[in-house]
User: Fold this.
Amino acid sequence: MAKLNGEDEGEFAEKIGSREERKMLARQNRSKGVWFGLGMMGMIGWSVSVPTLIGVAIGIWLDIRYPGHISWTITFLFAGLAVGCFNAWYWVEKERKKIDGYYEESRENDQRGGENDE
Assistant:
């Protein structure tokens, strides 16, 4: 059979099978659709805003109790923001690893299926 863009029939069939497997995994995990994405955005938003607001509250309290040259409010605002950004990064990374795990399982299943067919 003629080559398709430099690929032989086996490579082409392997790519199609891999794509089909990913589609099937996406259909199985359909519950993680729009609502899951919106919920994740909300969780990330809260994970940044809550530590930031806590930092501001601590800073205001310190400014009232111990006034000085340094603005504790701004200092703790940035500290809370840094903690919040780290927290958001943690949740996004955790979900990314979960998604990568699904794709890795799909690839392993493709490889096992290909070995069994030969």
Notes: The helical segments are 9-28, 34-65, 72-117. The chain is about 85% helix and 0% strand. The chain has one domain: 9-117.
